[in-house]
Write a structure and sequence with these properties.
24% of the residues lie in helices and 28% in strands. The protein is α+β, with helices and mostly antiparallel strands. Strands 30, 31, 32, 33, 34, 35, 36, 37, 38, 39, 40 and 41 form a 12-stranded antiparallel β-sheet that branches. Strands 17-18-19-20-29-26-25-22 form an 8-stranded antiparallel β-sheet, with no helix packed on it. The chain has a 6-stranded antiparallel β-sheet with strand order 16-21-28-27-24-23, with no helix packed on it. Helix 2 packs across helix 4 and helix 4 packs across helix 5. The longest helix is centred in the first third of the chain and has 23 residues. It is globular.
Length: 924
């Protein structure tokens, strides 16, 4: 291997070790090569002969007969095999008569043959020197948000190496014209094209191993080998002028964690190994490239967050393609690189033995990053564990049982439609079905049938909700490693609990009924972990098959202005902003809410009621030192009806309150505001809500802003009109207060919803937004809202909402009387002081949250989520001075109660002392 291309140094490259010439820094120290006229000998000593058989990554020659039988007898496997074969067959057949067509689409320095490639900051700069072969082009830029669209293979110019760039469409210009896209502005286009082409070579190499037909081997080798040689003979990138990104740059991309081409390249090599030798290719060259590439990833990585595992994905695949350690003079072979994943920790790469205990919550297995990142980490670990087992028989997860709940806990993060919550720099996505499939394979191998049922139920749920089909996966990993049949049967415990709290993310879920159409769910998140945002206490609400009130996710990319200015700030979340300036640094600041009260208890399968639940959380907004307290509740009078209650208090602790603004976003085409008489509110254009008015610059992203000084109760209606499917609404009622101003506006698109959590026609629309301003403090004048998702054809189930007035001073009491069209009346009761006695409409309430539900036959249920007493007209629950959680429900002529402590029940003039119990019937 080339000595001057060596990346095998201890630790991370520092600015001192990166010196090359004045104004230049290389990722490794590179002596002058005079245009690479002389090629030094191998570095470290490449393997002279094979020590173990190939292939090994996805299976071995010994597993081939069983795979052939599976493809022949199992319908989904036959379909996946066909998809793989069909995706590459036309190109393989074309290659027989036109062997240059596919090769010429690789993004290479075909004419210039640059031996060196230079990077300036986050953009490719230039190249120089001449290698003996065409070399691989480096990525255009670190930012993926390019205006240019990646051409299809058929649209690419053959052997393109033009100083003007890449011929591509400009997606931001009218008509999307073709033009020369400067290389430095092409985003991830270069590596995306190359990875796609090498991916075809990977599939063709597999087909050669499976069928024995040489045409597949010839296509795969002819395509991959120019890439291997082209990367071998090109230097690691050299930085000029702006060296700030030098530490993390890889061989093909700006971040070592994104070297995605390495995986299909290693797999193709693994399947083609014997053929490459038979046809005179020097496999030592490929092995040294894999070693050099792995060294660079280890050197340039990061030991925190998800980087370790993202780096390991590439290191392990390339490591498995190598021979054993003893085959190399420096001892750096297969086992050496696998240990960097399993057990060896260096400055910039931690092994599992350190990563797992440091990062995974030991109880629930939650990884401390936004969901899209967290569960991708676990998915990668399971994938790497599987391929290591394939190659060596070693079970690297045997010592880490927490990885199983780390994967299956994803079920707790799902809305009733099967999509994951969308907080932080992530989006609504389905769980990693690959994780469940790999766990299923592992449990099948180890004989854990009950565990199989747990993951199988998650897969079947995704099949029912989101059309997951094993026959449409189309990956080699799926075909070669998934079990033939998903077992039938239900697990002993449900997949999810009514409430769930992940401390490592300061994330809370409340749900009632996991029914896609009529289920309700609240997601509430603070700021803790990685890839999270400055969002205060931010909620998402679900209704009628979609995430109606979404979080907004990340911007078009991390380097776009809108990401830092809007998407990661308070204005993009369903929360309360103080004085228009609430903000903090989500990268460095951990700003969490505390749970004051909640029922059901997180993680428990026991609940007081099927109809009611609540959470009471407290938060200090650091920018203004404002104390905030939010009560979120679900009220579900029947299987098909239900609504949310939101009571949000906020005040500065120094008393210098200027304003508090309740911000709420809901997908749809528009929001309309009405007074309680049904007449639309007159909304006038306004220049408020902007940095010019003293607000955070995130407010500048609100458009079509209108306002009305309205201090009375009002109704907001968010309309969702669909071309396909039933039209829906989110109805909102809010209590009025003196000093109120209501605003309607549009926010930028919510980038969480683009993956299917809402109908696609809504995904690119601006999001209707309601902002309610309270002058001064909003603690004694809290934001009190009721939200009801419903279908337009069915109409709202709510008939009337009124505020309950306490007869005596009652602290921070809030009371609502909600009358429905078919389910009677629910009294919603809240206070911040559970010792304060409140009397209103025949009700005695001492607590922080309670509900009384009645119909024509009288009171049907008492729900004391947290408190000391809940009585109406002499009947109800008495906690005997203790704070309890208890319920009393009438079903027909029978009463049932639940309580966490001894209580006194009063019904029809009779009192009874009962012990703590769960769903116990009682006779009066």
């Amino acid at each position: 291997m080339l000595g001057f291309l060596s990346a095998c140094k201890e630790g991370k490259a520092s600015s001192e070790t990166l010196e090359n010439q004045p104004g230049e820094r290389s990722i490794v120290s590179i002596p002058s090569t005079e245009g690479m006229a002389h090629i030094p000998e191998n570095r470290g000593g490449a393997a002279v002969e094979t020590v173990r058989p190939h292939p090994c990554i996805y299976g071995t020659d010994a597993t081939r007969p069983a795979l052939i039988e599976k493809v022949g007898n199992v319908e989904w496997a036959a379909s996946v095999f066909k998809r793989i074969k069909d995706s590459v067959e036309p190109y393989v057949d074309q290659h027989v008569t036109d062997p240059e067509w596919m090769v010429s689409r690789l993004q290479m320095h075909w004419k210039t043959k640059y031996a060196k490639t230079y990077v300036n900051g986050s953009h490719w700069s230039h190249g120089d020197g001449e290698a003996p072969v065409p070399t691989v082009r480096f990525a255009g830029e670190r930012d993926w948000a390019s205006p240019y669209m990646t051409p299809k293979l058929e649209e690419l110019q053959p052997y393109s190496d033009d100083e003007r760039g890449i011929w591509a469409r400009n997606g931001e210009k009218e008509g999307k014209p073709w033009e020369w896209a400067p290389y430095r502005d092409t985003g991830h286009m270069v590596e995306r094209i190359n990875a796609h082409i090498i991916g075809l070579a990977e599939k063709s190499a597999f087909l050669y191993w499976y069928t024995g037909e040489e045409k597949y081997a010839k296509f795969a080798a002819d395509v991959m080998w120019p890439y291997v040689e082209g990367m071998y003979y090109r230097s690691n990138p050299i930085t000029v002028e702006d060296h700030s990104k030098a530490g993390i740059i890889g061989l093909a991309t700006f971040e070592v964690i994104h070297e995605s081409v390495t995986i299909p390249l290693a797999v193709a090599y693994d399947y083609l190994y014997d053929y490459l030798i038979e046809t005179g290719r020097d496999v030592k060259l490929a092995q040294d490239l894999f070693r050099r590439w792995s060294d660079r990833i280890i050197e340039g990585g990061g030991s925190e967050g998800n980087w370790n595992i993202n780096q390991a994905r590439h290191i392990v695949y390339m490591g498995l393609a190598l021979e054993d350690d003893e085959a190399y003079a420096d001892g750096k072979g297969k086992q050496f690189y696998l240990r960097s994943f399993t057990s060896v920790t260096t400055e910039n790469q931690k092994g599992l033995q350190d990563v797992v205990p440091e990062k995974y919550d030991p109880v629930d297995g939650v990884w401390p990053e936004a969901p899209g990142y967290a569960f991708s980490v676990t998915d990668s670990i399971l994938r790497l564990a599987q391929v290591i087992y394939n190659a060596s028989g070693q079970d690297v997860l045997e010592m880490y049982p927490i990885i199983v709940p780390a994967a299956t806990v994803s079920a707790q993060f799902l809305f009733p439609n099967g999509y994951m919550v969308g907080f932080g720099d992530t989006y609504h996505q389905v769980p990693y079905n690959q994780s469940m499939e790999l766990l299923l394979a592992r449990f099948r191998r180890t004989g854990q049938f009950d565990a199989e049922l747990q993951v199988a139920s998650i897969l079947r749920e995704q099949m029912a909700l989101n059309g997951y089909r094993r026959d449409s996966v189309g990956t080699l990993l799926a075909l070669t490693n998934y079990v033939e049949k998903i077992p039938e049967g239900e697990p002993e415990e449900p997949l999810r609990t009514r409430t769930f709290y992940a401390d490592s993310l300061n994330f809370l879920v409340q749900r009632n009924a996991q029914n896609e159409d009529d289920g309700l769910m609240i997601s509430l998140v603070g700021t803790k972990g990685s890839h999270v945002q400055a969002n205060g206490m931010a909620m998402e609400l679900y209704g009628k098959g979609m995430v109606m009130a979404p979080d907004f996710g990340r911007g078009p990319s991390y380097w776009t202005e809108s990401h830092g200015a809007f998407y990661t700030r308070f204005a993009a979340h369903n929360t309360v902003s103080v004085d228009g300036i609430s903000d903090y640094n989500p990268v460095h600041d951990t700003v969490v809410f505390d749970i004051v009260g909640i029922e059901p208890k997180p993680g428990s399968y026991d609940a007081l009621s099927e109809a009611f639940s609540f959470s009471d959380t407290e938060f200090v907004e650091p920018k203004t030192d404002a104390l905030q307290r939010r009560v979120l509740a679900i009220v579900k009078p029947s299987a098909s009806t239900g609504y949310y209650v939101d009571i949000f208090r906020s005040r500065r602790r120094d008393g210098d309150d200027k304003k508090h603004e309740y911000i709420y976003h809901n997908v749809g085409q528009n929001v309309q505001l009405f007074g309680m008489n049904g007449k639309p509110l007159l909304m006038k254009p306004t220049e408020e809500l902007s940095s010019d008015a003293g607000d955070h610059k995130a407010y500048n992203y609100f458009t079509d802003k209108r306002s009305n000084d309205w201090n009375r109760d009002f109704i907001a209606r968010f309309s969702i009109d669909l071309k396909k499917g039933a039209d829906a609404c989110m109805g909102m009622w809010m209590k009025g207060e003196n000093g109120r101003t209501v605003f309607s506006a549009n926010s930028p698109v919510a980038r969480t919803v683009s993956k299917g959590s809402v109908p696609r026609e809504l995904a690119e629309l601006p999001v209707p937004t309601l902002i309610v301003r309270q002058d001064g403090e909003a603690w004694n004048k809290p934001f009190v809202a009721v939200f009801e998702p419903y279908l337009k054809e069915e109409g709202s189930a709510l008939r009337n909402i009124q505020t309950l007035e306490a007869k005596a001073p009652a602290g921070d009491f809030v009371g609502l009387k909600v009358q429905t069209k078919t389910d009677g009346t629910q009294y919603i009761l809240n206070n911040t002081d559970d010792a304060a006695k409140v009397a209103a409409e025949g009700i005695l309430f001492m607590g922080t949250y309670g509900v009384i539900a009645e119909n024509e036959a009288g009171v049907q249920s008492f729900y004391l989520g947290s408190g000391r007493a809940l009585i109406k007209d002499g009947e109800g629950i008495d906690g005997q001075g203790q704070v309890v959680s208890a319920s009393l429900e009438k079903v027909g002529d029978t009463y049932f109660y639940s309580s966490d402590k001894e209580i006194i029940l009063s019904i029809a003039g009779r009192k009874m002392t009962v012990p703590a119990a769960q769903r116990m019937n009682v006779e009066f």
